[in-house]
C-alpha cells in the first residue's frame, strides 16, 4: 500500500483537496471518482502531486496504508450514502471514513451510528472556503470519535488554513458536531451577507453614491473593526464593470438570491431548539422574498412613502450605517453561538465555543479579525450566557446603538427594506428589556387554553377562571 490518505470524489472540491493533501510533506494520496475521466484528468494535469490513481473501491482500499483513511467529497445526500456503502464493503475495523461534503447533521449522526456498527470510524467534517480554500487551506470542522482524531488530526492540521500560527481545525465534538457547526457557520454567513447588502442599499439609495464609490467605502471599512473576507469581496464585486454593457455588474445581475439550503437548515434547527436566530432567519427569508418575481411584480404597485429619500450629512450617515452594521453583526454571531451551545446540550456534544471562533479566523467564508474578539470573550468566560454581553461587545453595542436606531428609522421612513438591521435591533432591545409583553401572552394563553401562568411574587402555577367569576386558583403544574 503506497498511500496514507485517499480522496473519493474528484469534482472541484475533491480534486483541490487532493492536491492540497499531496502538496504536504509525507502525504501520498490515492484518488477515486465514480466516472473515470475526472481521475485521468487530475492525474494527467498534476503529475507533481504523485497521485495514486485507482478505478475501483477494491483497488482504492488496497492502495491505502492501515488504518485506511478516506475523505469523501461527493454530492451531498444519496451520493454520500452510495460511497459510504462501497467503502464499508472494502474497509476494515479501525479504518476511517471522512465525509467532507455539506451533509445535514442528522444524516451524519445516522451515518456515524450505522458505520460504527461495522467497527469502522466515521467522521463528518464540515469544510469551508470554497474551491480556493480546499486547495490552499480551508477551515475544517470535524466531528467523530477521539480514536479517529488521533490519525486524522495531524493530516487535517497539515492542510488547514493557518491563523496567527494556529491551524484552522479542531476536533469540534463527537458524532455530528462538526457538520452542525459547519451548518451554523453557513447560517452566520447568510446573516453577514444580508447585513452587508442592506448597508450597500441604504448608502446607495440614501446618498446616491455609485457602486464604485461604495466599493471605496467598503475597502475603507475593511481596514477597521469590520475587516473581513466578505467586506473585502463586496468591494471587489461593487467595483466590477460589466464588459458587455459598461454598467456596474451589480446592476446587470438579476436581483434574486439563490440558496443551497444550509441557511434554512440553521433556522429550522434553531426553531426546534428554541433559539432565536432572528438575524439568520431574516437573511434566509430575504433571499426567499427576492426569489418570488411573480409576487414582486404585482406588489410593485403598492405605495411607498411620499417624496425622495435624501440624507443631509452624507459622511455622518455612512458612519451610522457602519456602526449599525457592526452592531447587527454582533447580534447575528451571538445568536449563532447560542445555537451551537444549544445543539451541544441537546445532542450531548462537548463543544469549545472559543475554539470554534478560532478555527473560523482563516480559510472559511466568514473569516475576520472579529473572531479573535469572540475567542477572547469565551477565553475570559467559558460559560458566557450570551456573547453580546461580553465587555468588548457590550461596549461596541453601546457605542453603536444611537447610529443603529437612526439607520433603522431612516430605512423605515425611506421605505428601504432592512430586515436584518431592524430585527437585530429588536433582538437587542428584547434581550435587554426588564419586562417583556410575554406576560400578556401568558395571560392570553391562560384565557383561551388554561395554559396557566407563574407570578412574580409567589411560587407556583396559577389559572384564572376566565369564563367563571375570574378568581385565581392554584393550578397543577404540568411542566
Ligand atoms: P458536487 O457537489 O458537484 O459533486 C460532484 C461529485 O460527486 C463528482 O465527483 C461525482 O462523480 C460525485 N457523485 C455524485 N453522485 C455520486 C454517486 N451516487 N456516487 C459516487 N459519486 C457521486 O462537487 P463539489 O466538488 O462542488 O462538492 C463536493 C462536496 O463538497 C459537496 O458535498 C458540496 O456540498 C461540498 N462543498 C462544496 C463547496 C463548494 O464551494 N463547491 C464548499 C464546501 C463544501 P462523477 O464525476 O462520477 O459524476
Automatic annotation (TrEMBL):
Give the pathway annotation: Carbohydrate degradation; pentose phosphate pathway; D-ribulose 5-phosphate from D-glucose 6-phosphate (oxidative stage): step 3/3
Q: Which InterPro entries match?
A: 6-PGluconate_DH-like_C_sf (IPR008927), 6PGD_dom2 (IPR013328), 6PGDH_C (IPR006114), 6PGDH_Gnd/GntZ (IPR006113), 6PGDH_NADP-bd (IPR006115), NAD(P)-bd_dom_sf (IPR036291), Pgluconate_DH (IPR006183)
Q: Does the keyword Oxidoreductase apply?
A: yes
Please give the catalytic activity noted in the UniProt record. Answer: 6-phospho-D-gluconate + NADP(+) = D-ribulose 5-phosphate + CO2 + NADPH
- This enzyme's EC code(s): 1.1.1.44
Q: Give the highest taxon in the source lineage.
A: Bacteria
What are the alphabetically sorted keywords of the record?
A: Gluconate utilization, NADP, Oxidoreductase, Pentose shunt
Q: A Pfam family this protein belongs to?
A: NAD_binding_2
Under SMART domains, the record lists:
6PGD
> What are the 6-phosphogluconate dehydrogenase C-terminal domain coordinates in residue numbering?
178-467
Q: What does this protein do?
A: Catalyzes the oxidative decarboxylation of 6-phosphogluconate to ribulose 5-phosphate and CO(2), with concomitant reduction of NADP to NADPH.
Q: Could you tell me which PANTHER family the record lists for this protein?
A: 6-PHOSPHOGLUCONATE DEHYDROGENASE
Similarity section: Belongs to the 6-phosphogluconate dehydrogenase family.
What assembly does the database describe for this protein?
A: Homodimer.
This chain belongs to the protein called 6-phosphogluconate dehydrogenase, decarboxylating
The species this protein belongs to is Microbacterium commune
This protein's encoding gene: gndA
Amino acid at each position: 500500500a503506497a498511500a496514507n490518505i485517499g480522496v473519493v470524489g474528484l469534482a472541484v472540491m475533491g480534486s483541490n483537496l487532493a492536491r492540497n493533501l499531496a502538496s504536504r510533506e509525507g502525504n501520498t494520496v490515492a484518488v477515486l471518482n465514480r466516472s473515470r475521466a475526472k481521475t485521468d484528468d487530475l492525474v494527467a494535469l498534476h503529475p507533481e502531486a504523485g497521485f495514486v490513481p485507482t478505478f475501483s473501491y477494491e483497488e482504492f482500499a488496497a492502495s491505502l496504508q492501515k488504518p485506511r483513511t478516506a475523505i469523501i467529497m461527493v454530492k451531498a445526500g444519496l451520493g454520500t450514502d452510495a460511497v459510504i456503502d462501497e467503502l464499508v464493503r472494502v474497509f476494515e475495523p479501525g479504518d476511517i471514513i471522512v465525509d467532507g461534503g455539506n451533509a445535514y447533521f442528522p444524516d451524519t449522526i445516522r451515518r456515524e451510528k450505522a458505520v460504527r456498527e461495522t467497527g469502522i470510524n466515521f467522521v463528518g467534517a464540515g469544510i469551508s472556503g470554497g474551491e480556493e480554500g480546499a486547495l490552499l487551506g480551508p477551515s475544517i470542522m470535524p466531528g467523530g470519535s477521539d480514536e479517529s482524531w488521533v490519525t486524522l488530526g495531524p493530516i487535517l492540521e497539515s492542510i488547514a488554513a493557518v491563523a496567527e500560527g494556529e491551524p484552522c481545525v479542531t476536533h469540534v465534538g463527537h458524532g455530528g458536531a462538526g457538520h452542525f457547526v459547519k451548518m451554523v457557520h453557513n447560517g452566520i454567513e447568510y446573516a453577514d451577507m444580508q447585513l452587508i447588502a442592506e448597508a450597500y442599499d441604504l448608502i446607495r439609495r440614501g446618498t446616491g453614491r455609485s457602486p464604485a464609490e461604495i466599493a471605496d467605502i467598503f475597502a475603507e471599512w475593511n481596514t477597521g473593526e469590520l475587516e473581513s473576507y466578505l467586506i473585502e469581496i463586496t468591494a471587489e464585486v461593487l467595483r466590477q464593470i460589466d464588459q458587455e454593457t459598461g454598467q456596474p455588474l451589480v446592476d446587470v445581475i438579476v436581483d434574486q438570491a439563490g440558496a443551497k439550503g444550509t441557511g434554512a437548515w440553521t433556522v429550522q434547527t434553531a426553531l426546534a431548539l428554541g433559539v432565536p436566530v432572528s438575524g439568520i432567519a431574516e437573511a434566509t427569508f430575504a433571499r426567499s422574498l427576492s426569489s418570488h418575481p411573480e409576487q414582486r411584480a404585482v406588489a410593485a404597485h403598492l405605495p411607498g412613502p411620499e417624496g425622495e429619500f435624501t440624507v443631509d450629512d452624507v459622511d455622518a450617515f455612512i458612519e451610522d450605517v457602519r456602526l449599525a452594521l457592526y452592531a447587527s453583526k454582533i447580534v447575528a454571531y451571538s445568536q449563532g453561538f447560542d445555537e451551537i451551545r444549544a445543539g451541544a446540550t441537546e445532542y450531548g456534544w462537548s463543544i469549545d465555543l472559543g475554539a470554534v471562533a478560532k478555527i473560523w479566523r482563516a480559510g472559511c467564508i466568514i473569516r475576520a479579525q472579529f473572531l479573535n474578539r469572540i475567542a477572547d470573550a469565551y477565553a475570559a468566560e467559558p460559560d458566557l450566557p450570551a456573547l453580546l454581553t461580553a465587555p468588548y461587545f457590550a461596549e461596541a453595542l453601546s457605542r453603536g446603538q444611537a447610529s443603529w436606531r437612526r439607520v433603522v428609522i431612516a430605512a423605515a421612513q425611506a421605505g428601504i427594506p432592512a430586515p436584518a438591521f431592524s430585527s437585530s435591533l429588536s433582538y437587542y432591545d428584547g434581550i435587554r428589556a426588564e419586562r417583556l409583553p410575554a406576560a400578556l401572552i401568558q395571560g392570553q394563553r391562560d384565557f383561551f387554553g388554561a395554559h396557566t401562568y407563574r407570578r412574580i411574587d409567589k411560587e407556583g402555577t396559577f389559572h384564572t377562571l376566565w369564563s367563571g367569576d375570574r378568581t385565581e386558583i392554584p393550578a397543577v403544574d404540568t411542566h
